[in-house]
Every structure is written in C-alpha cells, then in structure tokens.
Fold this sequence. Notes:
Layout: H1 4-19, H2 26-33, H3 38-44, H4 48-66, H5 78-91, H6 105-114, H7 116-139, H8 150-171, H9 175-189
Amino acid sequence: MKDRRTQIIEAATAVMVRQGFGDTSIDEVIRESGLCGKGHFYHYFKSKEELGYAVLKLQFESFAERGLTALREPTIEPIERLTRFIDAVISSQSPEGCTSGTPCGALATEMASQHEGFRQLVDALFQRWADQIEAVLWEARPRLSDDADTARLARFVVATLEGAWFMSRVKGDAANAAGIATELKRSVRSYAREREPAVVGATQ
C-alpha cells in the first residue's frame, strides 16, 4: 500500500498535468488527495514549491524504474536495447500525450520556467537520463561509425523524445509520436556498421 505522502504527490501530479503547476492551488491538491485540511498538507510539505520538487522527482524516478530498465538488459545488444527503449517510451503515450509516471515535457517546461530550483532539477534529471543512454551507446562503440559522438547522440535521443511528447500533447494524437520514433530509430541505426559476414569454411 502506498504511503500517504506518495498518494499526495500522485494526486498533485494528476491536477498539475491537467491544468499546470501555476494554476494548481494547495486547496485543489487537498481535495484531490482527500486530505482533512491544510494542516494535514503542511505535515508532509512545507510549501507548494516543495511539493513541486516531489512531483518532478516522482515522475522521473517512476519513468526510470520502468523505462530505463530496458537499457540495462545485458542479454540484448546495445543498439537493440536502445531501440526497444524508444518503443517503450512511445508506448507509454496516452491520447493526451502524457501518462502518470511519465516526465511530461509541458509540465516540466512550465515548472522550469517559473523557478530556478525547478530548472536545475529538471536539467539534472534529463542529464541523468542522457548519461544512461550514452553508457549504452558507448557499449555499442565498436559497432558505431567513427563520426558517432555518443554524448551528442544521447542528447539528441532525449530531445527528440521530449519533442515527441510535446507534439503528442498539442495534437492530442499519440500516433504522431510513433512516427517520430520510427525516424529516431532509423537515425540511431544509421551510425551502426554492418556486422562483418562470417567466412564460410573458415578453420578453427
């Protein structure tokens, strides 16, 4: 069973995804989470800003637990892991362009623009995501072309997926993100060298 603090964060996330951080009041979070009053809210959070930090962290950590796990599967080759990760991210889309537990581009962007602390947190969380993607690309380095910059390619993957989330939210069409994902996977694979064919009849 989820603890009360997590329930409040999840209720706040639902409200903020619908109407944004700026337009969400503590009273609305109290109603959404079924708290008894502001005293109960302030038992868990000192301010709306502290709640905002918790919302961002929970979204990214939930996503990391579900999505980034695909990048750490040792029995699958790195490039295939990355393409499966991209598919997993896109499959998490809803018609509204965002699901609970997904670091939604619109909400994260709004919060980052309103508060320097939020901006620093979002930047650090996305960097952690990019670092994990880069680690997979570095593992694939022997199969990548010489001009492949793993750090730049990792940032490109993150930025493209964030753009796909945002466009899906604007258009209200999750299928839009699927098309972007197809082009992203094609772009990533364009850096991979073909495996050398086995030599028929080679001696041991």
